[in-house]
Amino acid sequence: MSDPLAVAVLIGLLGPVVAGPLLARGLDLVSPRWRRTIEWATIVAAVGVAIAADLLQDGPGAGGGFVYLLAALPGIITFLVWRSLLASALVSMAPMYFVLAILTRGRPTFVPELALDRGIPVVPAWMFVYGSLYVFVVILPLLVVRERGLIRRAMQAYLLVMTVSYVGFLVYPTSAPRPDAIIGDGFAAWTLRLAYSLDPPYNCFPSLHVAYAFVSALACYHVHRGVGIAAVIWAMLISISTLFTKQHYVVDVIAGAAAAGVAYGVFLREYSLHPAAVHDRERAPRRAAIAVAVFAAMVAAFWTAYRME
């Protein structure tokens, strides 16, 4: 009998390629007056069905049919919103990070620790930098990178570092250098313990945290030099944060930066903005400031959760 996890992964990767375009083609037959409403109603209904199925059953491990729906949904929804197979593939592959961690569990893992790694202490305060990636890699490029051609090349760069990293996770499984316990009861220590509970202690080499950060920063650099330089500096800080939070080794950081460098050279280095995108360059600093505000709001939300616990 087929492994539900393997089947769900296959559907999650291939399902949107078929279902997304077919659903979009069907929606194109609807009157333009109602098309957008029906499209969003379809998206909301699909998400609702998946959530209801999850609540009514024993969770994804039970192997119910909703597992396969959940696997395909992100890519299908992305295609309906963006009408892009590239964006759909990117979103469909993202959850593979956790699937690979599940597959690594129980396998022998490597510990590529250097003397420098042993000399770096755990500093929970670096979580404020480490956690910024989730805004830095999604919100920042969505706000700053607006030209269609550059968006496509940035997604190709993301897809390349993702694919290279997944291969690394499979052929060279590693265990993160996490301590047995986080000392302290403050907000920073609380957030680091939360990160450890949510992120599996595998998938270290190369560091996707580092690779994503530099791809995002370099894509923004093509829009606005100042924003790009600031983003590259922050990407460097994110790289350092992976060491002080003991999420990665030094070699992971180097490999992640190298993967981003290759992706930049292949997809972004020779790209020139279209003259029509001048207004995007002018608005880039304000749009980047919005990303900073989003991150501040995220920190405030976690602070509230911490105080309520």
Structure description:
With 309 residues, the protein is mainly α. It folds into two domains: 90 residues; 194 residues, Vanadium-containing Chloroperoxidase, domain 1. Helix content is 72%, strand content 0%. The radius of gyration is 21 Å and the shape is globular.
Notable features of this structure?
mainly alpha, Vanadium-containing Chloroperoxidase, domain 1, 2 domains
SSE blueprint and pairings:
Elements: H1 4-28, H2 32-56, H3 66-82, H4 85-93, H5 96-104, H6 115-119, H7 127-130, H8 133-136, H9 139-144, H10 148-171, H11 187-198, H12 208-221, H13 225-244, H14 250-268, H15 278-308
**What's the overall geometry?**
globular
First and last CA, distance: 44 Å
Beta-strand share of residues: under 5%
Oligomerization: single chain
Quickly name the level 1 CATH class of the largest domain: Mainly Alpha
Q: Return the string of H and E elements.
A: HHHHHHHHHHHHHHH
Give the C-alpha Rg.
21 Å
User: Helix content range of the residues, please?
Assistant: over 70%
Give the class from helix and strand content and strand pairing: mainly alpha
The overall average pLDDT, rounded, is 86
**Total of helices:** 15
Short recap of the structure:
With 309 residues, the chain is an all-alpha fold. It contains 15 helices and no strands.
